[in-house]
Amino acid sequence: MLVFKFGGASVKEPEGVKNLVKILEHFEGNNILVVVSAMGKTTNAMEEVVKSAYFKKENLEEKIEVVRAFHTDLILGLFKNPDPILNFLDDKINEIRIKFERYNGEKFDEFYDQIVSFGEILSTKIISYYFEEIDLMHKWLDSRKYIKTDSTFREGKVNWDVTKSSIELIDQDFPLYITQGFLGGTSDGKTTTLGREGSDYSASIFAHCLGAESVTIWKDVPGVLCADPRLFENPGKYEQLSYQEAIEMTYYGATVIHPKTIKPLQNSAIPLFVKPFLHPSESGTVVDDKPFTQTDLPSVIVKKNQVLISISTLDFSFVTEANISNIFEIIARHNLKCNLSQNSAMSYTVCLDFDEMKFDDLKADLQKRFKILYNTDLELITVRHYQSETLKNITEGRKVFVEQLSRNTAQVVVR
């Protein structure tokens, strides 16, 4: 079986959905499981709905209408007979409203998962209805019944034993399945999500548990590039990456592949292809167990919206291993990830993604034990297989807050 993952950009308009079908036709004769993200920028729009509802803002209906209007336009442009799927869309919008009315004090992260998940349900149902209209035989699967997680909302931890037992029940002799990325479910039936942009990880989970032949992520780029083409002109493409190199790149923030995607594939020796969805015959990039050799092409990874926190003791004593342990315990409690850390005798500095929903609570917890100073609106730039000229170019004209160099990796925090 092949596992294909299509991101939101690839199905953001009617032509994108039709192109998905063309890709399936290109691989006719293979049994395929298709994993799909929410369409376009729906997850962003659903996040706005969640914030408006949770904080009881007056613009809630306006935010809901953005979601409805986007999907309505796509449906009208895709279907000859749009009424059944428009009715389904109305039902789902009403279901969201009912969830708001029945809100009973859940914390933000749990509330978030129950609402934002509608984006993936809508996208896969719309595509499933389209498959029916063109007589493409398939089955729609609810991934929440297969990928089972704990109750860490917005970052669900997979229960691999239960998940594998569930996914192994899927009949691999059936030609085509469609399911959702990003979503999981708890043992008591609540929806969880696997972390932002987690649909790649979903595809990897299904592939691992099914013993798939390969996974292909269909993107709007020709493969894995050495830099973000939106930020850098004409970045080079990697023809091949080792599992280890791919993990390093994604760990530091390369967004073309979700960080958790690689491990399940490596464990089962399943190759991962990253290919352009408009040109399915092109080679793209393959990630496999062969050594990585393109070290002459440095990869530049930019993480925006960073906060740099310098932490020192309240009594002017040295920062010890016990202090550092306390700091990481607090960061982990708020379900945040440290992107960079640096210590001196009197302070410990960490760089994190700035999360406006969590930062004030994190700051308050740290200030119970430590003195803190922080800077926001920063960028963390990581260069794998760096060259001095590359570092000079990316820092020229910018204020450097922190710089770290190791054998293969350079990191700078800049504004």
Describe this structure in words.
Helix 4 (83-101) runs antiparallel to helix 6 (118-133), helix 7 (160-167) packs across helix 8 and helix 8 packs parallel to helix 10. Helix content is 37%, strand content 23%. The chain has 415 residues and is of the alpha/beta class. The chain is built from 13 helices and 16 strands.
Question: What proportion strand?
Answer: 15-25%
Main sheet properties: 8 strands, mixed
- How many domains comprise the coordinates? 2
At the fold tier of CATH, the topology name of the largest domain is Carbamate kinase
List unreliable stretches of 5+ residues.
Answer: none
Q: What is the CATH superfamily label of the largest domain?
A: Acetylglutamate kinase-like
Helix fraction by DSSP (H/I, runs of at least 4): 25-40%
- Number of E strands: 16
Reading side by side through the largest sheet, how are the strands ordered? 3-4-2-1-7-9-10-8
CATH class of the largest domain: Alpha Beta
User: What's the tally of helices?
Assistant: 13
**Radius of gyration, rounded?**
22 Å
The assigned structural class equals alpha/beta
Would you identify the CATH architecture of the largest domain? 3-Layer(aba) Sandwich
Gross geometry: globular
